[in-house]
Amino acid sequence: MTYSLAVSQRHFYSWAACRAAQAGSAKARRKEFLGALHHSGALEYLNQKPAPAPTAEQFDALFYQWVERAMTFLKTEHQRDVSFGVSAKLISVYLKGAWVLHSSPNCDLARQIHPPIDSILLRAIDSVKGTSLSKKYKWQKLDRTQYELLLQGLRSIAGNGPLWKVEEYWQP
Hints:
The protein is mainly alpha-helical. It has helices at 5-22, 30-40, 42-47, 56-78, 84-98, 108-112, 119-129, 133-136, 144-158. It is globular, with a radius of gyration of 15 Å. The N and C termini lie far apart (34 Å).
């Protein structure tokens, strides 16, 4: 395989996703998270260049499947119990880098991709919007039901705009 800009980008996004997930869980190593990311199905999906883009409901179903596959991989291959929230951050950071940041502002798929959720984002939204998301939800401990409820709230904040726009409140 020839090392190209596309390969370099995939390597970087994979590394960033693993590091972001590790920030919420010391339960898995980078290589273990990398394996989970590769076994999730998300990378293959993006390689297909999906057209037409899925609806929000269709994307959510795919996303939850990818997260659960990553969790299962970590559990069965490495005996690591990693929360839904941590696994969701692993997948969403990769998707943000690999797709959202390379798309047009109104790309239909980019509109559906979940933002990486962490305490920085939730506290910032609380500060600006007067919510209490950071007190109600701890991203490192989210199960699927809590994640779905939080995502519903984030969609409400995004309104008709793309979901990635809620990150306007996030400051690194």
